[in-house]
Amino acid sequence: METESCPRFGRRVLPDTIRLVASGTRHAGLREVLERWLDKYAGKDWESRHVDSRILLKFFPKMEQAAKDFVVILENNIVTLMEEKLTEAQKKHVKAVGVPVVFYSTAGVRDFHDWYRDGFFIAIRAAINQPTNTKGYKLFTNPEMTRPITGAEEGLYAFLTLNHLTKRLSEDSVFCSRGADGTRRCRNDLAGVVEVGGASAQLVFPVDDSDILPSFVKPVNLQAERLLPESYPIAGVVSVSFMQLGVASSAGLFLKQLCSTEQFLRDGVCYNPCFFEGYEQPCSAGEVTIDKNGKASVSEDIRKNRLKPIGTYCSQNNPEIGMKATNELQCRANGIDPQQPLQKRLEFSNCSKIVGTGDFETCHAQIERLLISPRLPLPANIEAASSGFESVGHVFSFASSRSPMVITGGAMVASIRLLQKVELLSSPFEGNASELERAAKTFCSSPIVRDGAGAVIEVGKHQVKLDALNHDICKTMAVNVSLLEHMETADKRPTSITWEKSVVDDDGREVADLGWQVGAVLQLVLDPGRWSRMAYQTGWAHNL
């Protein structure tokens, strides 16, 4: 990114010059690192018994070493990208001013209880501020740039990313103009976003000052919170994040709830309306693989069980459960008994296998009942409930917007693209719930055919190979339908609804993926005073 220095105003970052240099290598997640540390120093099966976290403080030096090992891999990745992508002149400049590191954790460890997560971040910050590379790059960070973020923050950063990349927040935006007197005027055409990740889902959209909202709804003023400068469009934004509604976490929780219901569990067989007819798998929320013959198997590795995070959270040894009856009730309402050991919490009682029925109407009804508008908040949703929204259904009942809405997330977008590919959904698709429901009903009722090449889903003249990514895609389609229905029945309907995974420029080249990452950088650099203090006045030299 580039900067400019103006008399009396100091140096500021030019947001339009922020560029994605490259994507780094994906490494072990923070949750995996923390769980390995606990396995070693708290002992195996720590999730099923009381552990005195104060005693584990004596092993903090071991956590510091784990953080150093983690950061060395990260640092090597950063340095390699710098060496490959920067010119020699740019390298000299970067080495002189230092490399600020923004490192945030999101829903993957948001529900990790006790001091372990925050302690690990202390160790990570210390490791980043002691760079070990031999190329002369001086990495540095601080508690503002390296920390866990809340769900609401994650949503706001995704909102900033979308509106920045689509030029709604650009100084040269087509949504802004200058009057005859030179005054810059901007229409508030900011877009909302529904971001569905692996562990959580965020709903963020602007609301008008004239909107009459319930007293508990407190829109975030982007200028007052210093997320945007005063020169940008004034905006009040509703930002809500729901744990357990990410693609992976919701898949595990949905199976657990469904297969605990008498209506769908008969004689040891769980009949899942969101699986294709002819599909079978063992009764488990483990990671699914499908072999070349089309047979599904499930990993027995607890770390790969999609119920593992919520199963760990819903433990009587977690103070949030043991000391709060409402939180325990939420776990029990979802078929998880906090008194049981972890293995029992992850099991499907009295279930031998799961069989698909391909009944999309029933699938949609159960998704709405269990995930979108549950009677009680889903577990680990203290943040959302404290903001007044206990479910996605509540959000659109109490607040709504006419702003364009973009739904993002790999699985959410893939489900729409797949229906378009098999010619069941119009292209472009304008977000009509009835049209999507009809298309999904036809697709999900299609039979699975097995031949020598494996298993395929036959949809008219099209064949779709069954794999680990699409075996439960009907669940995602049902989530999309429910979202559209709630938007359509709200007081205000979005002017447009689209599904996008990334933003492309006028030449069709991908600029960057949607998500919270670009917004996280923006909210730091758009405040010149704060950024100057962090990056220049108290940069790498401050950490010597």
UniProtKB/TrEMBL annotation:
Binding site for ATP: G198, A199, S200, A201, Q202
Gene3D superfamilies: 3.30.420.530, 3.30.420.540
Active site: E154
Alphabetic keyword roster: ATP-binding, Hydrolase, Nucleotide-binding
GO molecular-function terms, A-Z: ATP binding; hydrolase activity
Family statement: Belongs to the GDA1/CD39 NTPase family.
Protein name, UniProt field: Gda1 cd39 (Nucleoside phosphatase) family protein
Species, as recorded: Cystoisospora suis
